[in-house]
Amino acid sequence: MDDSAANDQDPPEQTAQSDQPPPRSAAEWLTLAVSTLIVAALIGAALYEHLGNDEPPGVRVEIQVDLARVERRETRYYVPFTVTNTGAEPAEAVSLVFEIKQGEEVLEETSTEIAFLPNSGSAGGEIVTELDPAGHEIVGRIGSVMIP
Predict the structure, then answer these.
(1) pLDDT value at position 119?
(2) What is the pLDDT of residue 86?
């Protein structure tokens, strides 16, 4: 019986080796390294976006009228404009007022509304008028802004 009992038990060297997992393959190490780099890049991007944000607080809306790209279509002039929010907060229902002036006299006033303007975002449109922009001044201003 002693011989059969001794044969049923594994030698101590085999038991110690079976408790340890096999060594990692090159593919496993590569996958681990790439995954770690991706996670580190995502964390770095989130920190950069959060801490490196140089936008001023609140909503900062700017209007630019592009007189160099005016188009005449039949009897009307189409004057492109761009509205940019340089602030850190988004804006809703941005009301824009455009005045077409000759000297101090306002000849025409038109308004439009931008439904949503994200932070660091911009939107464009066109002012439509029968007055020739070449002989007039076009001034854009903000009428009102809703902050969500």
Answers:
(1) 85
(2) 87
Whether the full predicted model's pTM is greater than 0.85, yes or no, is: no
Q: Which of 34, 21, 125 is nearest to 81 (CA)?
A: 125
| Mean pLDDT, residues 83-88 taken together | 89
What pLDDT score does 59 carry? 86
DSSP state string for 5-44? HHHHSPPHHHHHHHTSPPPPPHHHHHHHHHHHHHHHHHHH
Q: Is-contact 112 99, C-beta < 8 A?
A: no
Phi and psi, residue 134, nearest 5°:
-65, -30
**77, 78, 109: which is closest to 96 by C-alpha?**
109
Q: Which CATH superfamily does the domain covering 61-146 fall into?
A: Immunoglobulins (2.60.40.10)
Tokens of 132: 């020739």
| Domain ranges (residues) in the chain | 21-52, 61-146
User: Is residue 117 within 8 Å of 94, Cβ to Cβ?
Assistant: yes
Question: With bands split at pLDDT 50, 70 and 90, how would you rate the model's confidence at 54?
Answer: low
Single-letter residue type at 141: R
Q: Sign of the C-alpha dihedral, residues 102, 104, 108, 114?
A: positive
